[in-house]
Amino acid sequence: MASTRCDEKFISDSQSDTEVGSGYHNHVETHLEFSRHTQFKLSLFTGGKSVPGVSKLFALGVGAQEEMSKGPTDDQINDPTINWSIYRALRAIAPEDITVGGFGSPGSDHYLFAALAADQTVDITPKAPPDYYEGGVSAAELKLRIFDAVTGAELTDKTTTVFVGEQVSLYCLIVTPASAPPTAYQWTIPGFTISNYVATAYSGTVYSNFPTSLTNVVFYWADGATNRAVTCAATVRGQKAVGQAKFNVQRPDAPWILTPKDHVAVDTDYPGSPGYYYLHAGKGNSTNDAGMLYEYHTTDLKGYNRVFQFQFVQIATIDWKINYDLGTSTNYSMYQQMRGLDNGIRPDGSPNSDYFAARWFFQSGYTIDSPGDKLLDSYVFDWRRDSFECYLLFQPQGGNSCPD
Which pLDDT tens digit goes with each residue over 349-366? Predict the structure, then answer.
């Protein structure tokens, strides 16, 4: 885009005498005056579809030059000895002395940055103090683009399908003039997101914090939803550029069913030490006499076609109290109240290294649980109240487990 503002004026006076016959002359006086005034107004159409709260960042390259040949006798139109379209005296106008529309003056690098709404027409006419000058403004949109860090595919303004538990790795890119590098990156990610989930036999820790102020971001979604808009913003000389990518986060449908199969009892009919009484819920010999039968059946994998696994985890809250009679003058009592992972015990008394009670690589599966407490001869009182929270976890290939 270019603009020219000038006032040009050419005045010529001449006279002549011409002999037209014997003793006759014609006397001619000529006054010629020509003037030109031009002024262009420049406008920028930002294009695109207007979305509330969303703007587009433009880099405006600005320059203007003062016309030096502007005296009253200077012929800027048709001087016979000078081609004014090529040879004319010009002087650069300092960028700080130029204004563009209502956006102010460019920096020393002649760039001015403006965040503008889409589908708008704005005035970007350059103005300068001299009466005679010409100038121009170039406009380029600086688009912040979002990419998949694994595949390199651009995701900007597209909708991508991912699954809960899959690692999402993104980076953003915006190309700016070298004199105006982008700063203050900020990602905004909706939904329940985590950076990691670490489980041991003793604890499970969810890490929900992860860096969102870098050019890249890595996270997992733990809940499903459609049309989630992930944005990345960056600042260029005080003006913000924002890129957006949308995601459909799929979560398989898998009904999770608990069926009590037996009752609480005190008797010797329990797998364990023969002849001893047990306080127990069910026997656990099969799915028919278990205290609790857990089942799941996948009804819809939502199009997931890679390796996956379902996992079952149980968190127990216990309230136990036991009184002992050891045949001495002192009686003993033991109690325990706690909440933790129900991971079972190895034969040596140590916790299982893997707290998951069961794993399945199929679209359906089950497990059973029949808790019991051996009643020793020294027990005079045994109190036990257990409650359980049970979760079915889905883990995609290379991902983290997410509860159903």
Answer: 444 544 444 566 678 888
